[in-house]
Structures are given as structure tokens and as C-alpha cells.
Amino acid sequence: MDDPLSSMMRDAMNVGFENLEILRLANAWCKHATMSGGMGVGLLQQATGLPISGGSLRCDYAKAPPQIIGMQLAHSALAFYEANCVGCTDRVPGGEEPNLATWALEQRGQRDAEHAHLERERADESARRDQRQQDRRRLFDDAVLLDLRETALAVRGDALMDAVLLVNERRGSSDADVLPIAIEAMRKGLAMSRSGATIARAAEVLDPDPAVLERIIEVAGGTGHIIGGGDRAPEPAALIRMFDLEPGEVVARLRALALLDDRWARARAMRAAEQLIIARPTTAGDLLPSILDSLVMEDDSSAYPAPFAAAAARKAVGAALWASPEQSDRLIQERWGGAGVRERRRYLE
User: Fold this and answer.
1) pLDDT tens-digit profile of 146-165?
2) Per-residue exposure over 205-216, b if at least 16 CB sit within 10 Å of its own CB, e if not
């Protein structure tokens, strides 16, 4: 093992050799390049003749004085070259390569690579930090949203459930992730509009559910023209999407609802049938017989809400006549061909 003094001497001599190489490269680039005095001249430098004490490169034509003076010329040579040698008109070429210019090119490449590496590390660390914050925030949000959802279901809070669905949408949750919440809300009759919109977007992954389908039918018909039903415009997007995926299921459910004793349910089904016929005219022939059956279940003396259920059925008949005039007229003739004018007018006008 070398003693400490020998190790220090060897390190100092290595610095001297490196400084000597920088001086050689500088002279190979330009004969004006020399070295200014460094940190004095020690015994080892006197004995070996190596420029151990360093200093900095200098030139009588330099525009910018050296900013760094130190034992190792390599630490200041690149800055000196960039500040004074690039584009210098007073240069007297040494005529050799490699020289200070080729060395500077290598140093720039290393410097740029190190800088790019540091920037990538900073960017990666920033991304990891942001991800950790998002993960912590999402864990918090998940817990809060779960509590809000349970509360909304427990107290049947329509506005609260609507807020839960809205927050899930705004934070970028996929429709497939929000779908179970929307279905749960739809079953409870909560946030029907936003739940229906979510179901319309993610209907491909929804298994037909009679209870949910009935809620979708209710949303499709709206409640704006039914006394006591609030003021919600028809929103048929989810019903139309479900029909496109499961036409038989949707038509069968509408037919069944059209013949229920519950007049409110019939009115909702008729309004939904009207919207579906308008959006998908080919359904007129499939739905009109049930619509006509629903219509004759009412009479003018029926208790409230019978007049509104009949009105909804008449509007659905009108939609069918618009969508498929000849077929609808034929079905009406078959249904009431033997009825008098007064009876037909009573049901259809």
C-alpha cells in the first residue's frame, strides 16, 4: 500500500500531465494560447517541470478574461474557448488535430448529455411526485365519494347522488367505472338524468336489467307534461342506445309497461315509446298495437291521472303515424275498423 505522501504526489503529477495535455491542445488550435500563472510553483512542479499548479488559459487577443482559475485547466478551458476562441480572427492555427476545438466538441457533447440526463431525472422525479400526490388525492377522493354515495342512497338524496356522479366524471373516471354507481342510482330513482347519460355512454358493458330498463324508460319520457311529475324534459339517449344493443328486450319491456294497471307507469311508457319511435321510426309497427291497447284502457270518466295517460298514448300514436303512415294507418283500421266514427274520434283525437 502506498503511503499518503506518495499517493498525493502521484495525484498531483496526474494533474500536471492533464494540464500539459490541455496546453498542447490549445497550442495545436492557436499559437497565441498560453497559460497564466496558477497557485504558485511548488517543489514537485520545480522538480518535474509539469504545470501542476494550473491557473487558466490566456491569450493576448482574448476578449473575455478567464472566469475560473484553478489547479485543473480542464475545468476552465471549455469556457475560455467558447468565450474567446470561437470565430476569433486573430487565430494562428497550430495545424494539428486533435486540438482545443475537437476537445471542446467532445466536452460539449458530454456536458449536453449530462444536462439532458439531469433534466430527465428531474422530470421523472417530478412525475413520480405528481403521481404520488394524485394517488394520495385519489385514495382520499375514493373514500369521500364512497361515503357520499352511501349517504345519498341512504337518504335518497337526488342532488347528492348527482354530485357524486359529476365528480367522478370530472376527475376522469371511465364510464365503465362510473356505470355501477349510475345503475345503483337509477334503481333508486336518483340523479336520473346524469345516470341515464352515463348508461348511454357505457351501454355496451351493461347487462339488461328489467329494473334499470324501467328507469331508463322513465328518463326517456321525461315528466314535463304530467302533473305531479316534476319538470324534466325527455332524455331518450340511454333508451335509444339500449334499443340499438338489445332491441327485443326494449320493445318487450315497453309493450309490458303499456298494459299495466298503474296509469303512471303506462304514461311513462307511452312517452318513452313516442321518443323511441321518433328516433327509430322502424319501431312504429312493433309498438303501435300495444300503444292502441293502452289507449282503450282509459275512458273519459277515469280518475286522475287517466286523462294524462291517454294523452301520452295519443301522442305516441301520432309519432307512429308520422314515422310509418301506411303501416300505422293499417294497424289502426284493423283495430277500429268496425268502430263508429264517434268511438274512433274519442280515442284518437
Assistant:
1) 656 666 666 666 676 677 67
2) ebeeeeebbbbb
